[in-house]
Specification:
Elements lengths: L13 H29 L3 H9 L8 H8 L3 H13 L3 E6 L2 E9 L1 H23 L3 H25 L1
Antiparallel strand pairs: 1-2
């Protein structure tokens, strides 16, 4: 049986389904390998590295806000923040408007580490994009946006 034959419009052939599953699995594996490399390179567990990256968008964060962004329970965030604090990357500051709340911000060492991580990520992503012919990049980005939206829509159906 030839799996490469096109299915009728709108139908998904078994070949397309299998190819999609293989590609998504391989992309996930590539991402996992890169994340492990990053963790080793920057001497940070993956969760601490991902948490540190959240500060690139914000000056101050709360443990609750980090928990929501990382989609983990607050007790897990406490351990992550403790690790980053012990390494000198994050500092706790009492909220001047509510003394019960602790704001978290990057220390100068945290800013330096975040700059290193961002430079590494920029370089990796630049290298990936440079391997895609310029005339195909725009279409690839549009297709990735469509893939992301489709995956998010299916995820929302699971809730």
């Amino acid at each position: 049986m030839n799996y490469k034959t096109e299915a009728p419009a709108g139908d998904i052939s078994s070949y397309q389904l299998e190819q999609f599953q293989r590609l998504v699995s391989r992309l996930y594996q590539c991402c996992q390998e890169r994340m492990q490399y990053q963790s080793d390179r920057f001497d940070l567990p993956d969760a601490e590295l991902r948490c540190l990256l959240l500060f690139g968008e914000e000056r101050y964060l709360t443990p609750k806000g980090i928990a929501q962004k990382m989609n983990v329970v607050k007790s897990r965030i406490s351990k992550i923040i403790d690790g980053l604090t012990k390494k000198g990357y994050v500092q706790r500051i009492k909220d001047p408007e509510d003394s019960r709340v602790h704001l978290l911000s990057l220390s100068s060492g945290g800013h330096k580490k975040l700059t290193e991580i961002k430079a590494f990520l920029d370089d990796v992503h630049h290298q990936v994009l440079s391997r895609i012919p310029p005339e195909q990049r725009k279409l690839m980005l549009i297709d990735l946006e469509l893939l992301k939206s489709s995956m998010e829509a299916v995820k929302d159906l699971m809730d």
